[in-house]
Each structure stands twice: as structure tokens, then as C-alpha cells.
Amino acid sequence: MSRRSTAPSQVLARSVAELPRGTLAQLRSQARRCRACPLWAHATQTVFGEGPADATLMLLGEQPGTQEDLSGRPFVGPAGGLLDRALEEAGLERAELYLTNTVKHFKYEPRGKLRLHKRANAAEQQACRQWLAAEVASLRPRLIVAMGSMAAQALFGAAFKVTRERGKLRHLGDGTTEGLATWHPSAVLRAPGPGRVRLYQELVADLRVAQQRSRALRTLPAASPAA
Ligand code: SF4
Fold first, then answer.
1. Atom of ligand 1 at shortest distance to CA of 124?
2. Ligand 1 binding pocket mutation candidate from 28, 62, 102, 103 (most atoms within 8 A of CB)
3. Residue range 90-120, pLDDT digits in tens
4. What does the pLDDT read at residue 110?
5. Closest residue to atom 4 of ligand 1, CA basis
6. Which regions in the chain score pLDDT beneath 50?
7. What is the pLDDT of residue 227?
8. Please, what are the domains in the chain?
9. Which residue's alpha carbon is nearest to atom 2 within ligand 1?
């Protein structure tokens, strides 16, 4: 049975009305039955986060794509392959990170045999915020890297622009957890020609900042402010 609290999450830009409580495994199980917005109806399954329950660093994406929908795991499609390469270049081990998405179900438009990715709307994003808030409350990451505007705005608010403000460490609403925004791997894949190379290099550079900061945070007490 779900255990819920009315306590808002202070880490995210917007609070949630009800916060599901439990271990990550319990939350994953609860989220399988979520019907809080219409997206569950046409998706294969909930794509919940995955990674160690004591991870220092959370990587936050936007919403699952078709491969994630079929496998039930985040970042396994082409964008996941690019992310794996960028993580390796930045000196980060995927197995040590907690990876999740802002919205947990695949949204798409059928086009013949294809399922074309469609962005979750504001109401769907807000409905799903409860699961991200619950993951953050359970995991208590020291640093969250938001990839793409949907994820960045979940952390830093609706006015945040990845194009202007990526790559900078900043404190989140609770005053202790830190956040950093960067490009989503899908945006790198979509960028044409030389732009793709530049975005990829910026993604790797931002992940290096996260790698160095998360390594430093592991040696500091939990309430220490950013350097
Ligand atoms: S997208 Fe999120 S809020 Fe909507 S049904 Fe899926 S888990 Fe629930």
C-alpha cells in the first residue's frame, strides 16, 4: 500500500500536493500503478529511475523514448548510447549514478508503424512531479544534473534557459542540494553538423564539472554549502 505525506519537496522548483514515501524499490512498485495523468494508457510500462540507493549524483532526463518504453529502463536508446560515451569521457561510472526522468511514461503520436516522440504537456509534467520528488526524498542526492529544458525547469523554475545557464553549479531550493543543467543527449543527436560536435563537447565538459563536484561532495558533511 502507498505511504503518502503532504510534505512538499523543497529541492524541486515546484512543490507537490502529496509525496509518495518509501524506499526506491517501494516507489518503483507504486509508480507501476500510477494513473495520475493519461500517459499510462498508451505506454508499455512506467520507466522509473535506476541506480544505487546511496548514489551521490542523480542524472535527470526528460521523458522516456520508444526504446526506454519497451525495455522499462531509462537511457537505453540512441541517446543513452551517446550519454554512456559522454559519461566515460567525463570520468563518471554509470553504475554509480542514479538515472531517472522528469516524466515516467512515454508520450507519442502514432504515424503508421512509428511512434513519434511527443513532449509531455505542463499538466502531465506536474502530475508526474510527485515521483521525481519522491525519488529525490528517498535518495537524497548531493548533486542533480538536469539534462534538457524540461529537467532543468523542474529544478530551477520555468524561466530557466539551458542555452544561457548550463554548466553552472547552483544550490537548489533546500539550500544544500546542488544542481547543474546541461544538454539532453537527444538534443546533441538532433543538432546538425558542427553544432553536434560543439554540444557534445559542452555536455562532456558539464559532466566533468559534475564528476569533480560529486567527488568533493562525498568527502563533505551533507549540509555543507557549495564551494
Ligand atoms: S506519466 Fe507520471 S503521472 Fe502520468 S501516469 Fe505515468 S507515472 Fe503517473
1. 4
2. 103
3. 999 999 999 999 999 999 999 999 999 999 9
4. 93
5. 37
6. 1-2, 6-8, 224-227
7. 42
8. 3-217 (3.40.470.10)
9. 128
Pocket (CB within 6 angstroms of ligand 1): 31, 34-37, 39-40, 46, 103-105, 124, 127-128, 131
Residue nearest to atom 3 of ligand 1 (CA): 128
- Annotate the chain with DSSP letters as a single string: --EEE-PPPSSSSS--SSEEES-HHHHHHHHTT--SSGGGGGSSS----BS-TT-SEEEEES---HHHHHHS-SS-SHHHHHHHHHHHHHT--GGGSEEEESS-S--EEEETTEEEE----HHHHHHHHHHHHHHHHHH--SEEEEESHHHHHHHH-TT--HHHHTT--EE-TTSSSEEEEE--HHHHHHS-HHHHHHHHHHHHHHHHHHHHHHHHHTTS-TTPPP-
Q: What spacing in Å lies between the alpha carbon of 128 and ligand 1's midpoint? A: 5
Q: CB–CB of 103/221 below 8 Å?
A: no
* pTM to 2 decimal places: 0.94
Q: State residue 3's pLDDT score.
A: 53
